Structures are given as structure tokens and as C-alpha cells.
Automatic annotation (TrEMBL):
Oxidoreductase keyword on record: no
Keywords, in A-Z order: Membrane, Transmembrane, Transmembrane helix
Name of the featured protein: Stage V sporulation protein AE
InterPro entries, alphabetized: Spore_V_AE, SpoVA
Origin superkingdom: Bacteria
Key word Membrane present: yes
Transmembrane portions of the chain: 6-22, 29-48, 54-71, 83-112
Pfam families named among the record's database cross-references: SpoVAC_SpoVAEB
Organism of provenance: Tissierella carlieri
Length: 118
């Protein structure tokens, strides 16, 4: 059942993005930044946590989940280290995921022959 809930939640997030992409003049970059910002705001005010508890990876893997992780890290950092922690907490909370993305992206670029889209 966990997988079904994750699929539904993650799928709905992607459907919202696709609807926005199809029906507006926003570029994928605008939508990416909007989802990230929405994740930060929803995480900061505590509205994203129930979705994470219900959807699991379906809510934490998309970019909106990254925004939530940034917000939660900043909140925890502010609680423990004050104003400096508010700036560094988000980076500490997401450093592992960012490092993994860079590492695996580099490995794939070495293994495969990357090409630009024309």
C-alpha cells in the first residue's frame, strides 16, 4: 500500500506541473522554481508534513520535497544555532542529496556519451 500511496502523491504533483506547463506560458524553469518555493513555504508553515506522512517518497522525492527539506533544515538550524543556523541548516539538511546527485550525474556522464539537444 505504501507504494500505491507514493505513486499517487508523486503522480499528482507531476500532473499539476504538467497542467501548468500545458496551460500557461511558464517555462519548465519557472515551474521548477515555483515548486521549490511552494515546498519551502508549505514546509515552513507545517502544511507539507501531513502529505509526507501519507505519501512517503511520493512527496519527498519531487522538487517540492527538496524545498520542504530546505525549510525543515533551516527551522531546526535556527532552533539550535540561532540566526546563523537559519542560513546553514537548509544546506546541512540537503547536502547528502545534492552530493549524491552530483556524484551520480558525473558517473553517468563518464559511462555514457552525453549529447546536447538540437
Amino acid at each position: 500500500m505504501e507504494y500505491i500511496k507514493a505513486f499517487i502523491v508523486g503522480g499528482l504533483i507531476c500532473v499539476v506541473g504538467q497542467i501548468i506547463l500545458d496551460n500557461t506560458k511558464l517555462t519548465p524553469a519557472h515551474i521548477l522554481v515555483s515548486f521549490l518555493t511552494a515546498g519551502v513555504i508549505l514546509g515552513g508553515i507545517g502544511l507539507y508534513e501531513p502529505l509526507v506522512k501519507f505519501g512517503g517518497a511520493g512527496a519527498t522525492v519531487p522538487i517540492i520535497g527538496f524545498g520542504n527539506a530546505l525549510a525543515q533544515g533551516a527551522i531546526e538550524g535556527a532552533k539550535t544555532k540561532g540566526i546563523i543556523g537559519a542560513f546553514t541548516g537548509g544546506l546541512q539538511a540537503t547536502a547528502g542529496g545534492v552530493a549524491a546527485a552530483i556524484l551520480f550525474g558525473y558517473i553517468m556522464a563518464v559511462i555514457f556519451n552525453p549529447k546536447t539537444k538540437n
